[in-house]
Amino acid sequence: MQTGAACPFFSQLHEADTVAEGFRNLLPEHFSYEFLEGEKEVSPAPGVDKVFPGPYLSYLTDYSVGSIEEQHQYIMDVVAEEGPFDGIMGFSQGASLAASILLHHQIEKPWLPPPFRVAIFLCATYAHSRTVVDGEDVTHKVPTSELPSRRTSTDSGYSSEEDSAKDSIRVLYANSTKARIQIPTAHLYGENDEYLHESLEVLDLCDPRLALEFKHRGGHEVPMDTVTNKKIHDIIATTCERGETFS
């Protein structure tokens, strides 16, 4: 997610453009930003089609190592071509990918500056690994409907053990990696969100000295009421101000 001026944000959303309008309201007016949508068309989550028109776009149709690696490349290619960007901001799956990108940077290249100076996580879900060695393998816990299609096919087509491993699903839990995201972060989530525990897990992947959090009364959503919006807006602005000292 991209913001401009002092804190350009590179925004990752996984819904239609209509949703992007709500996110623009959370960012200070002087920011410049770009919204990067996923490329995969999917069915809407329950109730979404009653609020927002399609198409419904997603980064991922599964969370396998191979799929995460592919989407990391997709996002970072855009950053390389159109950046640099001061920050990244994501909702749900977008926040999951943002956290995964930043954590893998700390795991693999901690001596280099992070690709962004701030990160905003809205209703984040678990951060997943793009490698077969990081995180915890949770493939056996995942419903069949959420597994890569080759895993559920009678003819998997796997040509090697490495090929099969790419279809495994690995979560970056705080207790499975010592790395922590080392930039200012904002964590915004709903007390009635069914994925609240996942948002808190992403919070635990960040340096607590640099993290701000806000729990609203809603669910897996960004509340549009004026009072809550103002609080979210202020936390994002403060996070961006803190990010000005990072390079």
Structure in words:
The protein is of the alpha/beta class and 247 residues long. Helix content is 32%, strand content 16%. The protein has seven helices and ten strands. Strand 5, helix 3 (93-108) and strand 6 form a beta-alpha-beta unit. The chain is globular, with a radius of gyration of 17 Å. The two termini are 17 Å apart.
In the sheet with the most strands, the strands line up as: 2-1-5-6-9-10
Largest sheet, in brief, is: 6 strands, parallel
Shape: globular
- Listing every helix as H and every strand as E from the N terminus to the C terminus, the arrangement reads EHEEEHEHEEHHEEHEH
Structural class: alpha/beta
Helical proportion, percent range: 25-40%
End-to-end C-alpha gap:
17 Å
- Estimated share of beta-strand residues: 15-25%
Uncertain residue ranges: 1-18, 152-156
* Counted beta strands: 10
In DSSP terms (H or I, runs of 4 or more residues), the helix count works out at 7
**Over the alpha carbons, how many angstroms does the gyration radius reach?**
17 Å
Average pLDDT metric: 81
